[in-house]
């Protein structure tokens, strides 16, 4: 059967008033997305502290990190180019993937969320396989019986007379 993968998301919006409860949400995260405004150098500087806070609750080797510059549509190409250099440097220090997005135009938003979802799903599957969970391993053999009686754990229900 198909299963859905909808990772929970928590947005503290970088506000100090959420700092005391934010650590509760960070605990056990599969991915940490730190977002800053590409038009505000100060917001890029704050990303280091938010990441440090999030990593207090998580093992850095077990979490996928993303640094995301938002509001790209509000900067000129020259302004963005300067900020991008700084952002790439910070992302490298954090060992995070860097993305620049625009909610207004939609630039990179869909691709970014697909990336987060695919990496966290892959991480979940690999963790389950390492734990020896019920997921089948590559190379396992699945035998399918051709006997109809083997397809049911219990006897099939009889059709109502109206449907015969």
UniProtKB/TrEMBL annotation:
<dbReference type="GO" id="GO:0003924">
    <property type="term" value="F:GTPase activity"/>
</dbReference>
<keyword id="KW-0547">Nucleotide-binding</keyword>
<dbReference type="InterPro" id="IPR001806">
    <property type="entry name" value="Small_GTPase"/>
</dbReference>
<dbReference type="InterPro" id="IPR050227">
    <property type="entry name" value="Rab"/>
</dbReference>
<protein>
    <submittedName>
        <fullName>RAB34 protein</fullName>
    </submittedName>
</protein>
<dbReference type="GO" id="GO:0005525">
    <property type="term" value="F:GTP binding"/>
</dbReference>
<keyword id="KW-0342">GTP-binding</keyword>
<dbReference type="Pfam" id="PF00071">
    <property type="entry name" value="Ras"/>
</dbReference>
<dbReference type="InterPro" id="IPR027417">
    <property type="entry name" value="P-loop_NTPase"/>
</dbReference>
